[in-house]
Design a protein that fits this description.
The structure is a homodimer. With about 240 residues, chain A is of the alpha/beta class. Chain A is built from 8 helices and 7 strands. At the A-B interface, strand 3, helix 3, helix 4, helix 5 and helix 6 of A face strand 3, helix 3, helix 4, helix 5 and helix 6 of B.
């Protein structure tokens, strides 16, 4: 009997970045264990897309965990626990205001669950779709953050401290542009029709085209010279 | 008006370690935001004890979050996703077998939520009751793990990367024996009658006295020369 291929935990959000990151893992021969989170996203489209992507990538298992992130708050306007900050410090480079869609420590929480599952499965590789270029304002999308999480993870589990294994947080997209991600995904056979990016789908369940996430996605497809199957434009090849 | 005292997020499990850790924070003048987790513990006693301790320490808020840790598994006997490990590697010093009560990456997940809440509250100090001596087999109770988590945390949030603040993971008990923790707690006025340690309370809701956690607790009280208010012994002073 041939040796079994190693497994990888892949974080799947339903978006095209994480689908492409998971496709990279698959292309390297890993058996995929997909992990998604239901944390009060505004609509179900994202999780449905994650499920479709998990099926298309033939994941061994797709675990969807419910998290109560909404109860932690994150906006001074919606949570009674938060004091409105006094001296705002403008950011350099990134957006000057934290967007309402920003969830504090989200990637740390997501990666922590991935770490727990990896330890249970005795898996050494965790794939995540973080990208430093399109989200330059998000500290937990930068390579130095990922490296620090990896270092912590290698001190956190029995698998590494007693079992002699080493954990890797793999972020194959971290230095790519959205257009490069789309081209990489296409080369690996990602079905972009099964990915979802929009924050505000319309009444018919179609992407709005106006939110930050739609705009980033459209710009990526345009720069890649491709048409988004979710929002086909005349005269361009399919993604 | 006097400057407002700084806040601290304190992890409260219901046990005497985390109660003492939180009492240290209170003694240093912090306003306390207590955080507990309902992750399928076998009984409600722990969370009830955490609630009582939060009230006695006059916490500003006590947030109890539900986590689906059980769905991640952690035992080869209960989860279909896990392969029974082949070459077991015995641990040095610590117990040679992972106890069934061990939850993979638990402290990483707990600290990640604490980090998220700290960022929302703009709080720089997180107190946790980890202890390296009594749990020498647990990698995520060691000082080097805590230091690595702290380093990662300082790269993970906007508060630190843009706001110029520094996050501290405070583990005041990490090098203490159980007896030292009990004596420290007593000096800070911790009401040990409002803490809970037993994994298997009897039908009347009393500590079993036989589980690992009861044995550690009893040994600690004995070495401290005190009587556990939950299991009073004749001829000893109250804790």
């Amino acid at each position: 009997m041939a040796a079994e291929r190693p497994g990888a935990v892949v974080l799947l959000s339903g978006g095209l970045d994480s689908a492409t990151s998971a496709a990279v893992a698959r292309s390297e021969g890993y058996r995929l264990y997909a992990l998604s989170f239901d944390y009060g996203q505004r609509h179900r489209k994202e999780l449905e897309a994650a499920g479709e992507t998990a099926r298309k990538l033939q994941c061994v298992e797709h675990l969807v965990l419910s998290l109560e992130l909404g109860r932690i708050g994150g906006s001074a306007l919606t949570s009674r626990a938060i004091e409105v900050p006094k001296g705002r410090i403008p950011s350099e480079g990134g957006p000057s205001e934290i967007p309402v869609t920003y969830v504090p420590a989200r990637n740390t929480i997501f990666l922590s669950y991935a770490l727990a599952w990896a330890e249970v499965l005795r898996i050494c590789d965790i794939f995540a779709g973080m990208n430093a270029l399109d989200y330059s304002g998000y500290p937990d999308c930068r390579p130095e953050y990922v490296a620090a999480f990896e270092q912590m993870a290698n001190l956190a589990t029995r698998m590494t401290t007693e079992g002699g294994k080493r954990l890797y947080i793999r972020t194959p997209l971290i230095q790519l542009t959205k257009a490069q991600i789309i081209l990489l995904g296409r080369s690996l056979g990602v079905d972009f029709a099964s990915t979802w990016s929009c924050y505000n789908p319309d009444a018919e369940g179609k992407p709005c085209g106006d939110c930050d996430s739609c705009i980033l996605r459209e710009r990526g497809f345009t720069e890649a010279g491709l048409s988004d199957p979710l929002r086909p434009l005349p005269g361009r090849g399919g993604g």
